[in-house]
């Protein structure tokens, strides 16, 4: 029996806000499907060169009142980054709260506009602990 990873689907309330967040992480739109009859948009984003590992943002045009305010039941998405400090600084400079700072030079958590937890992991070995991250407190849930 063969098994192939296809994608992870995340329901979103505001497609533009969510798309902007994932683009800050470095994901690029690879495909879009809009259904007039079903009144929804499916937007697929993936890291450049990894188009076979996308996330699917599902946006219901008429709103999505059933979407919980805290999506912890989902778990999290995880992405490896070349420099966790530079990535977190870029996100923070663009208004993203670093919920779990990379105090250890290896792992951080942020949340999307729809409260999806996103884990960022340093590719390879952890970086040496550095300020301001080493002494930064966690913010909210991650």
General description of the model:
This protein has 142 residues and is α/β, with parallel strands linked by helices. Helix content is 15%, strand content 32%. It contains 2 helices and 8 strands; from the N terminus they run βαββββαβββ. The chain has a 4-stranded mixed β-sheet, with helices on one face. It has a 4-stranded mixed β-sheet with strand order 5-8-7-6, covered by helices on one side. The longest helix has 11 residues.
Low-confidence spans: pLDDT under 50, at least 5 residues?
none
How many strands, which pairing sense, and closed or not: the largest β-sheet? 4 strands, mixed
Structural class given helices, strands, pairing? alpha/beta
- What percent strand? 25-35%
Q: What's the total number of strands?
A: 8
Sequence of strands across the biggest β-sheet: 1-4-3-2
Coarse morphology? globular
- Terminal residue distance: 36 Å
Topology pattern, helix = H, strand = E: EHEEEEHEEE
Number of alpha- plus pi-helical segments? 2
Rg calc: 16 Å
Task: Let me know the average pLDDT.
Answer: 90
**Approximate helicity band:** 10-25%
């Amino acid at each position: 029996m063969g098994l192939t990873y296809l994608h992870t689907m995340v329901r979103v309330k505001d497609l533009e806000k969510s798309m902007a967040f994932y683009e800050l992480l470095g994901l690029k739109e690879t495909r879009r499907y809009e259904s007039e009859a079903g009144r929804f948009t499916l937007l697929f984003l993936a890291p450049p060169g990894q188009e076979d590992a996308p996330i699917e943002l599902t946006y219901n045009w008429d709103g999505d009142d059933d979407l919980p305010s805290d999506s912890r039941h989902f778990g999290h998405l995880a992405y490896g980054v070349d420099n966790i400090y530079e990535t977190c600084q870029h996100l923070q400079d663009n208004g993203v709260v670093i919920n779990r700072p990379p105090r250890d030079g290896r792992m951080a958590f942020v949340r999307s506009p729809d409260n999806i937890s996103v884990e960022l992991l340093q590719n390879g070995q952890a970086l040496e602990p550095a300020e301001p991250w080493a002494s930064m407190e966690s913010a909210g849930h991650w």
